[in-house]
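pinging the channel bc i need a second pair of eyes. not urgent but kinda urgent?? the chain im working w is below, pasted from the shared doc
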Amino acid sequence: MANAAAPDRLAKIKHIVVLMMENRSFDHMLGYLGLDGVDVEGLQNAGTNDDADGNTYAVHEFSEDQTAFHLPGNPFDKTLDPCHGPDCVAEQMAGGTMSGFVKNFVSEKNPPAEFFDLPMGHFSDKHVPVYDHLARTYSVCDHWHSSIPGDTWPNRLYSLAGEKSLPVARKLSIFADIVGTKLFDKFKNTPIFEVEAFTRQLRNEQWRWYSHDPATLRAADGRYRDFTRVGRGNFAYFDKREIGLDLSLAEALFVGGSFLDDVTNRKLRDVSWIDPNFIDLRVGDQSSNDDHPPADITDGQILVLNLYEALLRYAEWNDTLLVITYDEHGGFYDHVAPPAVDDGSGFPTYGVRVPAIAIGPRVQAQPCHELFDHTSLIKTILLRFADDPDKALNNMPPRVRNANDLSVLLLDQPQKRQIPDLGAIRGSLAQRRAQAHAVRADALAKGAPPQDASTFSEFEQEFAKFAIAMRKAGLRPGHP
C-alpha cells in the first residue's frame, strides 16, 4: 500500500546496492520461513505436484548436507539443472495451478527416479544461514516476481531496461569473419543484446558496475561495448584488481579498484550493481557463486556474507539500501501463481516468484507483501537519483513506469542495531565449503572426468561465449 511519506524516506537513501543471483524460487530458498513463525507467504500454503504416472510429490526439506545437486559419485555433473526456458515455465505454471514442475523436470531431464522430486525440495536456515539472519533482521519481499515467465537473459534485460531483446550476434562485426561457418552456428545465439539500460538516465559518475568477468550490462546495452570511451571508470571487479602488464601505470590507476576497495575508501557511488561469478572454471573447487543450479549454494552464502559485512562497516551504512534478489526461479517449485500484467509487453503474466530481501538500517524489520518485479529496481533508482525522475521514467518502457518502487519498505529514521557477530555463520559456511572441496578432490582421485566445456551448464556456456566475444571486440585483460 502506498505511503505518503515514502518519497521523503527514499530521498534519505544515499546509496543503492543491488546483487542479483541466479535461478532459485522463493519457496525453494525462503519458503521455510512461513513454517517457522515468519509472516511470509511460504510453504505453509504449499501444494503438491504429480508426475506423468499420477504419483504425488509434496514439498520436502533437503538433507542438512544437500547444498548442491549432482548424481552420486560425480560432483562435476550438471544434469540436474531444471529447465527454465519459456516452454518449460509454461508447463510448470500449468495455467496458474503451479502443478507442472515435476512433470517438466522428469520429461526434460530424465533423471533417476530418486530425483523426481528435486524441484519440490527446499532449503532451511541450516542451508542458508546468511539469508536467515537477513530475513529476520530486515524485510523479506514475498511477492517479488521475476519479470517474465522465462529464463535468465530476458529477465536480466528487464532488470536493466524494462524490456527484452533477441540476441544481435548476426549484426556484430566481431563475428563478421565467421558468418556462414559452423563456428558461427555456435556463436550466433551468444547473449549479446541491444536495449537501453537505466544507466543511460544517470550521469556516469553516479553508478558503478562490479563483476567477476565482463559485466552483464555490457551484454545488454551496446553503449557499454564501446571500450575506448564510454564509462571506462564505471566497471570494476567485486573483490580483486587485475591489471594487464601491458597497461601503463596511469591507466592501471584509473581502471583499478573493486567494490571492497570502494567500500573501504568510502567511494561508493549512488548506485552499485553487483554481478556474481557465473562460471565454474576450477576443476578441484567450485569458483562460481551465483547459485545457478547445480552450484553449491554455500558459495553464494559466502558472497552475500562478504558483501553484507563490508557494508555494515561502511561510513554511510545508515543511509544505504541493499537489495538481494534472483533473476528467475530456475525451474524450482513455487506455489504462488504469477499475477496478470497488461502493459503491451506480450507477456500475460509476471514470472514465478523469486527470493528477495531488502536490507539496511532504514528498512522495516518485517516482511513486505507488495507486488514487485525486477523493474521495481529501475524505478526506485531513477526516482531517487535521476536528475529529472519524471523525464527518466518516461524514457523507459511501460513496465518500469507502472512498477511499484521500494520506498514502501523504508522508515523515517535508521534503526539503531549493534553490528552482529556473524562469526558462527562464517565458521559453519567455511566448514561446508571444506567438505565440498574434499568431495571434489576425492572424486578426482577416483578418476572423475575433469572440468571442461562439456561439463558446463548451458548458462555457463552462453556466458563463456559472451566473455570470448567481448575480448575479441577489444575488452582488454584486466577489465571486467
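so The CA atoms of residues 218 and 427 lie 36 Å apart. and The radius of gyration is 22 Å. — does that match what u expected or am i reading it wrong
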